[in-house]
Write a structure and sequence with these properties.
Blueprint lengths: L1 H6 L20 H9 L2 H6 L1 H14 L4 E3 L6 H5 L3 E5 L2 E5 L4 H5 L7 H4 L1 H13 L5 E7 L1 H10 L7 H9 L1 H24 L4 E5 L8 H17 L5 E4 L7 H4 L6 E3 L6 H7 L5 E6 L8 H15 L5 E5 L9 H15 L4
Parallel strand pairs: 1-4, 4-5, 5-6, 6-7, 7-8, 8-9
Antiparallel strand pairs: 2-3
Helix pairs in contact: 4-8, 9-10, 9-11, 10-11, 11-12, 14-15, 15-16
Bound molecules: coproporphyrinogen III (CP3).
């Protein structure tokens, strides 16, 4: 399997490629289904979740499928009110310590998130065996951000105020989230995920000492509970590379701000890297897009261990044919490896 071989740093005949948020609104087939069904319909029914997960694989030569779900859904199991609106997710955040104390500090993935488990089982049967099936979760710190912020405030001032005014409560929530997300990812592995991605999207708002206190140990605990290889993502990892490798993931998923070659130089451990085209570079004309892909692959170099992806999720205004050009360019570049 190209993707697993790459995670294990074994040589492959070409670079594996998949796209964060590949089952999303840039796809006409997704938008068409969305006219009939809500986001929650997709997330609550195995047959729909499977159908949506497979949409991008029908259209493109992708090397992985990612199960359709959302990192925020486990927050509902804690008793938080969450809805998916046109503008994005809306969470009713707890305002006081009393509100937090009323949350449910129990999470059993098998019984509380049966749809994601059922979807993974079904997807593993339906996708070709050379393609990887990916599970995912939000890292504890990033889950804490959404839990306390609700709708994200400017500079994430709400969560940063909680960290300073009541670190004890933050640690209590993070401790719970670390065990919960660890169990969640391992349940996904048992249901058929070949590898998992842990999204710590917002961890880069923290300085090094706060990252060490509020993000790193909890993300590490999640990863240590998972029995399949894992990929760890931070949007803006550049300020945290040296620390992020201590999370213990097989791969770091790098955003577009740091060239992969530079990332490799800064990471002392030998890990795979995933990424990292700027999602908006998919709007470039075909020839320039090809150049950008070549630059990214050349920056990593010919060594094994590069999973091609974007530096963050694909956005709705990307033309569908650009995704084909992106993948074709990766394949074309990969000929240097043969
Ligand atoms: O295709 C895939 O990657 C699998 C499914 C997936 C979704 N969300 C579906 C989704 C995954 C892996 C996610 C991860 C996710 N969700 C993250 C971490 C990655 C990142 O982007 O940093 C975060 C922070 C979320 C929370 C979230 N969910 C946001 C901020 C939004 C709104 C923005 C947007 O892109 O629409 C969502 C909604 C969402 N999650 C959609 C999809 C396909 C769009 C919903 C719709 O159909 O209206």
């Amino acid at each position: 399997m190209l993707l697993l071989d790459t995670l294990e740093l074994n040589p492959t005949p070409r670079r594996p490629v998949w796209i964060m948020r590949q089952a999303g609104r840039y796809l006409a087939s997704y938008r068409k289904l969305r006219e009939k069904y809500s986001f929650d319909d997709f997330a609550n029914q195995v047959d729909l979740a499977v159908q949506v997960s497979l949409l991008p694989l029908k259209q493109y030569e992708l090397d992985a499928a990612i199960v359709f779900s959302d990192i925020l859904l486990p927050l509902r199991c804690m008793g938080l009110k969450l809805s998916f609106e046109e503008t994005g997710p809306v969470i009713v955040a707890p305002k006081t310590l009393e509100d937090i104390n009323k949350l449910k500090f129990e999470f059993d993935p098998e019984t509380q998130t049966p749809v994601i488990m059922g979807s993974l089982k079904e997807l593993r049967k339906q996708i070709p065996k050379e393609k990887a099936l990916l599970g995912f979760a939000g890292a504890p710190f990033t889950m804490l951000v959404y839990l306390l912020e609700g709708e994200l405030s400017k500079d994430l001032g709400v969560v940063r105020t909680w960290l300073r005014k009541d670190p004890k409560t933050c640690h209590r929530l993070l401790d719970f989230l670390a065990n919960a997300m660890g169990n969640y990812l391992d349940a996904q592995a048992r249901a058929g995920a070949d590898a998992v991605q842990l999204f710590d999207t917002w961890a880069s708002i923290l300085g090094p000492a706060d990252y060490e206190e509020f993000a790193l140990p909890y993300a590490r605990r999640v990863i240590s509970q998972v029995t399949v290889p894992s990929v760890y993502y931070i949007n803006g990892m550049g300020s945290l590379f040296e620390q992020a490798q201590a999370v213990g993931a097989q791969a770091l998923s790098v955003d577009w701000r740091t060239p992969l070659g530079e990332a490799r130089n800064r990471i002392s451990q030998v890990v795979a890297l995933q990424g990292n085209l700027d999602p908006y570079h998919l709007l470039l004309p075909r020839a320039q897009l090809r150049e950008a892909v070549f630059e990214m692959c050349n920056s990593y170099g010919k060594d094994p261990g590069h999973i091609v992806n974007l530096g963050h999720g694909i956005v709705p205004n990307i033309p569908e044919e650009s995704v084909s050009y992106f993948i074709e360019s990766v394949h074309e570049w990969s000929q240097v490896l043969a």
